[in-house]
Amino acid sequence: MITDIFYGKMDALSLSVRSKLYFGTPSPRGGLHFELGDITVWKKWFGQSKQAQPETGYDQLNPAKIPQHVAIIMDGNGRWAQKRGLPRTFGHRAGAEALRAIVSTASEIGVGVLTAYAFSTENWKRPDEEVNLLMKLFSDYLDTEIDELHQNGVQLRFIGNLEGLAANLRDKMADARERTAGNTGLVLTLAVNYGGRAEVVHAVQALAEQVRQGAIAPEAITEELIHDHLYTAGLPDPDLIIRPSGDQRISNFLLWQSAYAEFWFTDVHWPDFKPEHLIAAIADFQRRERRFGGLKKKI
After folding, report:
1. What is the spatial distance between Cα 97 and Cα 109, in angstroms, rounded to a whole number?
2. Closest CA to 238 of 215, 258, 216, 214
3. Contact between 118 and 139 (Cβ < 8 Å)
4. Under 8 Å CB-to-CB from 1, ≥6 apart: which residues?
5. Nearest Cα to 73, choosing from 101, 114, 45, 41?
6. Which residue from 68, 156, 46 is spatially nearest to 112, judged by alpha carbons?
7. Which ranges in the chain belong to alpha helices (H)?
8. What is the pLDDT of residue 57?
9. Could you give the CA distance from residue 207 to residue 211 in angstroms, rounded to a whole number?
10. CA–CA separation, 267 vs 205, rounded Å?
11. Does the model's pTM come out above 0.85?
12. β-pair partners for 241
């Protein structure tokens, strides 16, 4: 099956076969178009019902304890590709496919907000070819996927220093945000050109300007006021932060907001991260007791 090749058996492909494998061709039907010889597969955000999907362990979860906000550091795309003898850019395309499945699952199980760390302020240090591909991926997905997201009630938001992006990409982001603003389903927040420290600096500068103008007094600045000036204003803080690919660090992601978040790590690279991994992370989250600095509750 093409999905087997895509998700785990590409090592066995000869170079001649690899040269026929294309990732990310925009499809006139929406989604991405995959070809290998005469085999064609259409990947869709919400293309399968829960009954048609492989068993992912939904019965492990307590519906009353689903985290309101799950954030994911989508790490390991490049390592996934290099392990298979492929360019790093192939890993980013595969990672985008992983995100589709996770968005669908998160929406289905009742997660309120899903934030995905797509491109950090530090990622500009990567080779131009890789950066340009990532920007093209963002642009292409806004073109091909927004209809289905909108039809499924997903509200799309973007956080980060968006002024640092190309004007045409900013325009597409603004259009997507405006089009889905009234949706009441999952809030999908993509962190693009995002850095946690830069976000705090941005909030502090905005508040300092208000103090300078006499609009507020310094002593009137509270945690709530700072929160209201972050990129994530209006969203709850993350309950659960997931990081695949083995590293156990926060990498400048949601520094202020993650003060009391639970963390879940796995060695699985992001392109191989599937709905069952999300279910496992949430099941583990539900077994933890969150005390927020207090004491364990007595039974």
Report:
1. 19
2. 258
3. no
4. none
5. 114
6. 68
7. 2-4, 15-18, 77-83, 88-109, 128-151, 167-180, 196-212, 223-227, 275-287
8. 76
9. 6
10. 38
11. no
12. 71, 263
Helix (H, G, I), strand (E, B) or coil at 49: coil
> Is 75 in the active site?
yes
Greater confidence (20 vs 200) lies with 200
Structure tokens at 256: 């202020």
Residue type, 229: H
For the beta sheet containing 22-26, the strands, ordered from the edge strand earlier in sequence to the opposite edge, are 22-26, 32-36, 39-43
pLDDT score of 156 more than 90: yes
Are the C-beta atoms of residues 10 and 20 closer than 8 Å to each other?
A: no
The reported pLDDT for the residue numbered 26 is 39
Chain position carrying tokens 């325009």: 171
List the Cα angle 285/291/294 in 5-degree steps.
170
pLDDT digits (tens, 9 = 90+) for 43-65: 444 444 444 444 557 888 999 99
218 pLDDT more than 70: yes
| The one catalytic residue among 123, 152, 183, 252 | 123
Point out the catalytic residue in the list 4, 59, 62, 75: 75
Q: What is the CA radius of gyration of the chain?
A: 20
Joined together, the tokens standing for residue 183 give 């949706």
3-class DSSP state for residue 287? helix
Residue with tokens 């790590």: 265
- 299 to 147, 245, 296: CA distances (angstroms): 49, 38, 9
The answer, yes or no, to whether residue 299 has pLDDT greater than 70, is no
Q: What stretches of 22-124 show up as alpha helix (H) in DSSP?
A: 77-83, 88-109
Half-sphere exposure of 11 (CA within 13 A, CB side): 6
Strands 32-36 and 22-26: antiparallel
Least confident of 7-11, 44-48, 234-238: 7-11
Could you give the domains of the chain?
45-287 (3.40.1180.10)
Q: Is the confidence at residue 106, as pLDDT, over 50?
A: yes
